[in-house]
Amino acid sequence: MTAGASFDLFENHLAGLEVTTAHDRAFQAGGREADLGAVQVAVKSVSPMTVRRRRTGGDGAWHDEQYQIVMPVHGTITATWGARDAKVTPGEVYAHDMARLEGCAMTGSAEREEFEMLLLAFPRSLLPFGAADLDGVLGRSVRGTSGLGAVLRNFTATLADRRNALGSADRSRLGVALVDLVTAFLAAEIEESSGPCPGGPRHGLALRVQAYILTHLRDPGLSPREIAAAHHISVSYLHRLFQGQSETVAAWIKGRRLERARRDLADPAFRALPIHAVAARWGFVHPADFSRSFRTAYGMTPSDFRHHALTTPG
User: Fold this and answer.
1) Which whole-number Å values give the CA distances from 129 to 58, 133, 219, in the listed order?
2) Do residues 70 and 77 make contact, with C-beta atoms less than 8 angstroms apart?
3) Which residues have CB under 8 Å from 177's CB, separation 6+?
4) Which terminus of the chain has fewer Cβ atoms in its 10 Å neighbourhood, N or C?
């Protein structure tokens, strides 16, 4: 591929965004990508460039429904998200939603001219947080060399490097695990962000509890008592945390389990997995209880839903 074709292909991939570079004739863009269900994982290497949101023209609507997490490997990215500027260097993690990304500049490191990054992209609907919850985290550079940030970086790099060794079912499972890890990471950052958590410390604890639940959905023993013990609070206080929700603790757990089981039933990678095994994957011990709950939530049996999802075009 010529340098000009490489540039055009990369710009087309960023629909709704305008790409400029000082080296159009020598522009290089490459990397490794893996689709993990609804999650995209990539290692991207590009010539120094600037990306700006187009004020008119371009179809970037699908971008606006995405979150992205950027982790530089070589070089620096300077980004403007809303009215917030951030400089992100190797060892740091940067999260933003595409709807408010105004632009960014990517430059190489002292060792090499190209900018290289780990990149995660996924629909906003996969996370349990509202816009206000994430306002103190998005558009800011946070440390990624220890704790959950380091785990996220290492896991993402491993997935990108070993993508060719993963079957379709493995990719779907790892995509779910990656979303759970991102949820836990962001919940911790929300709590530790410089400004007070929206709603105060109690709301921050509720977010941490929700993240804990999401990372333990597969455990059939997950219960309000176990959750309360893990967070050193009483069961009654746990229930009070959920009073602002439209569901009780148990109902919230069941709802998230049903959502994930529904996603697996619609995934061709799990076509051969029996429905009772799909239910067991998400902590449902009794198949009959799962079928009844699924029908109540979605208006059809799991088998009917799977048949419809896997045979209906589009």
Assistant:
1) 29, 6, 22
2) yes
3) none
4) C
- Answer whether residue 138 is part of any domain: yes
Q: Which tops the pLDDT comparison, 196 or 245? A: 245
CB 20 within 8 A of CB 28: no
Check which CATH number belongs to the domain holding 24 and give it: 2.60.120.10
Which of these, 63, 66, 171, lies nearest to 126 by C-alpha position?
Answer: 66
The least confident of 85-89, 151-155, 228-232, 310-314 is 310-314
CA distance 52 to 312: 38
Residue 210 inside a domain? The answer is no
Domain-located, residue 297: no
Expressed as residue numbers, the domain containing 30 is: 1-165
Q: How far is CA 218 from CA 20, 40, 146, in A?
A: 46, 23, 26
Predicted structure pTM score: 0.70
Structurally, how many domains does the chain consist of? 1
Say how many C-beta atoms besides its own lie within 10 A of residue 286's C-beta.
13
Across 190-201, average pLDDT: 58
Q: Which two tokens stand for residue 93?
A: 């993690």
Spatial contact of 242 and 249, defined as CB atoms under 8 Å apart: yes
Detail the DSSP E strand segments found in 37-162. Answer: 39-46, 49-53, 66-74, 76-81, 84-88, 92-97, 101-107, 115-123, 141-143
Residue 136 lies inside a defined structural domain of this protein:
yes
Write out pLDDT tens, residues 22-34.
655 566 777 788 8
